[in-house]
Amino acid sequence: MADKKMVEEITSMDVDFAQWYTDVVKKAELIDYTSVKGCMVIKPAGYAIWELIQKQLDARFKETGVENVYLPMFIPESLLQKEKDHVEGFAPEVAWVTHGGLQPLQERLCVRPTSETLFCDFYKNDIHSYRDLPKVYNQWCSVVRWEKETRPFLRSREFLWQEGHTAHATAEEAEQRTIQMLDVYADFCEEVLAIPVIKGQKTEKEKFAGAVATYTIEALMHDGKALQSGTSHNFGDGFAKAFGIQFADKDNTLKYVHQTSWGMTTRLIGAIIMVHGDNEGLVLPPKVAPIQVCVIPIQQKKEGVLEKARELTERLKKVCRVKLDDTDKSPGWKFADAEMRGYPIRVEIGPKDMEAGRCVLCRRDTREKTEVSLEELESRVEELLDAIQREMLERARKHRDLHTYTASSMDEFVKIFHERSGFVKAMWCGEQSCEDEIKEKLSVTSRCMPFEQEHIADTCVCCGKPAKKMVYWGKAY
Amino acid sequence: MADKKMVEEITSMDVDFAQWYTDVVKKAELIDYTSVKGCMVIKPAGYAIWELIQKQLDARFKETGVENVYLPMFIPESLLQKEKDHVEGFAPEVAWVTHGGLQPLQERLCVRPTSETLFCDFYKNDIHSYRDLPKVYNQWCSVVRWEKETRPFLRSREFLWQEGHTAHATAEEAEQRTIQMLDVYADFCEEVLAIPVIKGQKTEKEKFAGAVATYTIEALMHDGKALQSGTSHNFGDGFAKAFGIQFADKDNTLKYVHQTSWGMTTRLIGAIIMVHGDNEGLVLPPKVAPIQVCVIPIQQKKEGVLEKARELTERLKKVCRVKLDDTDKSPGWKFADAEMRGYPIRVEIGPKDMEAGRCVLCRRDTREKTEVSLEELESRVEELLDAIQREMLERARKHRDLHTYTASSMDEFVKIFHERSGFVKAMWCGEQSCEDEIKEKLSVTSRCMPFEQEHIADTCVCCGKPAKKMVYWGKAY
User: Range(s) for CATH 3.30.110.30 in chain B?
Assistant: First the structure.
């Protein structure tokens, strides 16, 4: 324990979850604050996670025919205003550029909060015939939303994301693409981030400004709060009509295109921290761990130990992302440091291990130790990385299921949210007034109407009128 | 020729090089113009080139120990003003954000034109001891400079780039890193883009705002104009003093860090077009060609042809980036289209070829055709891609050398720039007045003082005073 104190201490999750989160992002060196209020520096350990997310998500996009593009970061005010709901949703929170060089601009430009309007302006000129469809474009960039309260990764004035924007000949094809991308997101979260998600549709109140339908994946954090982790929107032909995006169809008539958009952000890093982290710090799923294995020599001053540690590191380079900690700190300090930074496996090698022709593998997620013969090192590490990835998902799913409750009356509903935290499944009449009342009373919002509906009761949990949908409710980030 | 006309025509280079360039970027679908003046859409065929540049350049960075980060896109006005030369260089061409949401900001923010000041602000808090050094960080992002005249890829109000920013304990180490990154850039241009470059130092007049020394790589375009293709700056401790970035050295005294920065941009795509392109369109070096091979069936309605073309495409997928053109256009149209888009190799396969168990490979760069046995397809394509990559560099070098002249008097100097276009090597006294005079008279600037100096004359080509340096002069983009 003395050694552990040498690594700066992290507030316990149970004492103060918000402070625990802040400690982890700072002390695992994922981010730093800046002189620019509400904006953050993403440091190497944080950015390397984002690079792994980008690489694997982008590969999944490309498998479905997505092509990457880049559009300007500025939107002329008149362009932003073309779709009524959209401008109402975003205008209050955009940053405005009013001067270029020493001159005032003739028209204000906003820094993109999202790029629907720019894509529409582009598609209007780029789409003429059914032969030009579908367009399935995506861009990786940063966007700006002038938030009042900010938290690293979860809500900041500038964040990194991808935004896909597609145009289709028919409503059916647009709806298909909307769901297809939601599925890509859900699979990515489960298979790469080891985060189980609920797929469903947002209510009218919670949907995206300008969308006909918004679909979402919702994840449950360790503290029982929900995090919207990715959304996919079907716009129908609303934007196409506002912008005049028409094509000549096979039957030679002019038709409006149907559009979608979908996005995921650096907020996913916040989800990884809050789903998998523990009181020792970060716990990274192997597939997004920039360092998967950390080799730590024991009694490294003894003859041959450091050489052996170097040899094992070199061997492991062929099968994983590995680093050697050969600093002059004590092994205990290095263990605590490796734990705080969330490396999935640490390898311990000392004189006794060398004599016995073995080393010790210690899992970050369970802290379980195994002795393995040096001959089998690579294969055992690979197996263990696979097992960690798989079991982290299972554990997160179990936690999520344990913290998912059912309420068939308002009393039950209130009681659960007062005593516990998690998702609550309850019936809803479909009226926004009930959502408003629940939000007012409990600071709880409808997370989604899940695709997998259950019949919990006949009546709305709030007003008692006949129920239309089962809804996941929760407190959200 | 009738077939060629079916592909929209490109202005001949010799008639109007600027129009040829514009035609190529538009018709090869690399970019599109937008409603945002001076900003462009980078379309899939253009962005895919940038992705290949990023991937290969980033890998070279990481081999030298570079770590990626992300800093905010906004710079508070007070921060930009901390280094006097720097603010003077950039303030006249930045975009200013004055409102966030519905509120005016207390302090204006500029959209980063470059991030020296942000990195300094970050390093000031992140660097304490010699143990924290060196910092070798880089970011991939977009930057904004409010240019008056813009051209796709070459000069636009927003462009994509990478910017490396490093901090070191000693002046020597900073200088070493500055040169090391210039070498990375030069090797990348030659080995990946097949563009030979001149390495050298910028004069005082041409160096970066705030730098002690700016190094550059200069390339020669097909029209004989120069393009600055990458720069690397040594800042000494100027920024460190302005921002107060100090560290406790091993001897326990406080010292200022020494800094560098270095950047390459989407302008490289402009260089690829203008170095390798011809009157049929784009010519892409295989290493940055998103599609390296295009398979075109001849008489594709004949039995078995399309199947065979598909089979060859599948086989080639294992060794290169390949696409099949199975549209209902004529082979002639497809050839012209593939040429315009710059695919390094096209594979022609028709009934006669099938009978003979062969196909035809046609190189984009030389238009040379070779018949190859179907059995050898993969190996011959791989060899040919290597040969094209190598020979494109050789050809570009030959062109550059042929258009590099020597002048030992002002008469010669003027005559060359009146009659020809290219680099002119000439001596210089070191005075800015001579640079100013040459620029005024001929619109020619000093491109660099090359590392490989030659003795051409004893006296300055302009004023006749004793010469200090041999300089490459040229008209520049």
Answer: 404-474
Pick one of 3.40.50.12500, 3.60.15.10, 3.40.50.300, 3.30.110.30 as the CATH number of B404-474. 3.30.110.30
Helix runs in A215-304, H state only: 238-243, 267-276
* pLDDT beneath 50, residues of chain A: 1-6
**Alpha-helix residue ranges (DSSP H) falling in B28-64:** 44-63
CA A139 to chain centre: 17
* Domain B2-276 CATH class label: alpha beta
| CA A97 distance to own-chain centroid | 29
Q: Is A132 left (phi over 0), alpha (psi -120 to 50) or beta?
A: alpha
Residue A467: how many CB atoms within 10 A of its CB?
Answer: 22
CATH 3.40.50.800 in chain B, residue ranges: 289-392
**Pairwise CB contact (< 8 Å): B97 & A96:** yes
Q: What pLDDT score was predicted for residue A83?
A: 87
Strand partners for B347 = B295, B361
What pLDDT is attached to residue B341? 98
Interface test with B, best of A40, A99, A115 (most B CBs within 10 A): A99
Q: Does B357 touch chain A if contact means CB atoms closer than 8 Å?
A: no
Q: What's the pLDDT at B86?
A: 85
Interface of B with A in 98-137 (CB under 8 A): 98-102, 109, 111, 118, 121-122, 125-126, 137
Q: Are B69 and A42 inside 8 Å of each other by CB?
A: yes
Is B139 within 8 Å of B71 (Cβ atoms)?
Answer: yes
Residues 6+ positions from B14 with CB-CB distance below 8 Å: none
ipTM of the complex: 0.96
The CA distance from A273 to A267, in Å, is 10
CATH code for the part of the protein at A291-386: 3.40.50.800
Say yes or no for a CB contact (<8 Å) between B32 and A92: no
* Positions of chain B with pLDDT lower than 50, given as ranges: 1-6
- Residue B293's beta-bridge partner residues? B322, B345
The dihedral sign for the CA sequence B148, B154, B157, B163: negative
Q: Among B461, B292, B465, B307, which residue's Cα sits nearest to residue B381?
A: B292
Q: Which two tokens stand for residue A137?
A: 């474009």
Give the model's pLDDT for residue A371.
97
Report pLDDT for A91.
Answer: 86
**Superfamily of segment(s) B289-392:** Anticodon-binding domain (3.40.50.800)
Q: Nearest to residue B166, comparing CAs of B233, B86, B261?
A: B261
| Radius of gyration of the CA atoms of chain B, in A | 25
């809804």: which residue's tokens? A471
State pTM to two decimals: 0.96
Sign of the four-CA dihedral B272, B273, B275, B276:
positive
The per-residue pLDDT for B7 is 54
pLDDT digits (tens, 9 = 90+) for A321-368: 999 999 999 999 999 999 999 999 999 999 999 999 999 999 999 999
Q: What's the CATH number for A16-276?
A: 3.30.930.10
What distances in angstroms separate CA B471 from CA A104, A348, B198, B355, B458, one per listed residue?
40, 58, 11, 60, 13
Contact in structure between B476 and B447 (CB atoms under 8 Å): yes
Concatenating the DSSP letter of every residue in B247-279 gives: EE-TTS-EEE-EEEEEEEETHHHHHHHHHH-BT
In this prediction, residue B83 carries a pLDDT of 87
